[in-house]
Amino acid sequence: xxxxxxxxxxxxxxxxxxxxxxxxxxxxxxxxxxxxxxxxxxxxxxxxxxxxxxxxxxxxxxxxxxxxxxxxxxxxxxxxxxxxxxxxxxxxxxxxxxxxxxxxxxxxxxxxxxxxxxxxxxxxxxxxxxxxxxxxxxxxxxxxxxxxxxxxxxxxxxxxxxxxxxxxxxxxxxxxxxxxxxxxxxxxxxxxxxxxxxxxxxxxxxxxxxxxxxxxxxxxxxxxxxxxxxxxxxxxxxxxxxxxxxxxxxxxxxxxxxxxxxxxxxxxxxxxxxxxxxxxxxxxxxxxxxxxxxxxxxxxxxxxxxxxxxxxxxxxxxxxxxxxxxxxxxxxxxxxxxxxxxxxxxxxxxxxxxxxxxxxxxxxxxxxxxxxxxxxxxxxxxxxxxxxx
Length: 389
Prior knowledge:
Layout: H1 25-38, H2 43-50, H3 57-64, H4 73-80, H5 83-95, H6 97-107, H7 111-122, E1 131-132, H8 133-142, H9 147-162, E2 172-173, H10 186-192, H11 208-221, E3 231-235, E4 251-252, H12 253-258, E5 262-263, E6 274-278, E7 287-290, H13 292-300, H14 304-317, H15 334-346, H16 360-373, H17 383-388
Antiparallel strand pairs: 1-2, 3-5, 3-7, 4-6, 6-7
């Protein structure tokens, strides 16, 4: 069962068709069919593909019930990372050692990175979702929250159907339309689906080698740089200029070192790379340097807390110690976070949707207000900040 936010794994070109959503569901499906035929797909194929498609209210319920992302990093990461998942990850690394060797050779993706996604997406293939994929995609495209993401995926699924690689009646997966062990959307399957086990088929639901190699290829296409790190836990000195922290601000590792930042264990991965200093729960909590490869995670998922947890788990699977949790100041409840976002909006800050989630734009706004008020500008909102606003 999926516990995380919607994956954003493609860049979609805008077109007038993408604005069509809402209204009668049957009329919406008719519009999809007409668009497919206009693009050159035969009426017989189109009718067969869309036959029996229906709106799934459970998909809409799942889309609106993602409260887990309101949890702070320490709570969220402890929920997703267990000793069992670590042990199984290490076991899978041994079992598919040759597959991971191939991925590392061909795409430069560390095995820990893919193992972490495999664990979080489907618990190493055990829970891939039982939502009808076509129903899910059409339901979400009809819903006017994010039609620009889901409508193109319907036509990608249609292309897979024409190739004989998608059954609109029996293909199932996550509520947001992802399929297989590492949960890929239809467009990504078209672009990156790879036969990893040599049987002549791309079977992302039943073949771990197929799923892993396909996932590695996708991360490579999203911009992953081989032989570079993605995340490293660090210690920060007292008196550090906290206004320089956050994912949007980057400086070389050597600069961070001159400012007194040190690796918590081991040595610097690469002092020439640009990196951001992340303080997910403020200056009293854990601290990480995020390297350029860390940004690729946001092409997979837009949730900061999910991305950081996945990146951290990947380092754990590759031998890093458990983070130093520190003693962060208590955070805000979901209701308090919404109240804070409204106050920030009233002060002219763009925080996006008022959803109770401490996302990137809310963090930036918090940091600016902390600077204005003379508080430690670590982007971690507290009741003190809320009260002062």
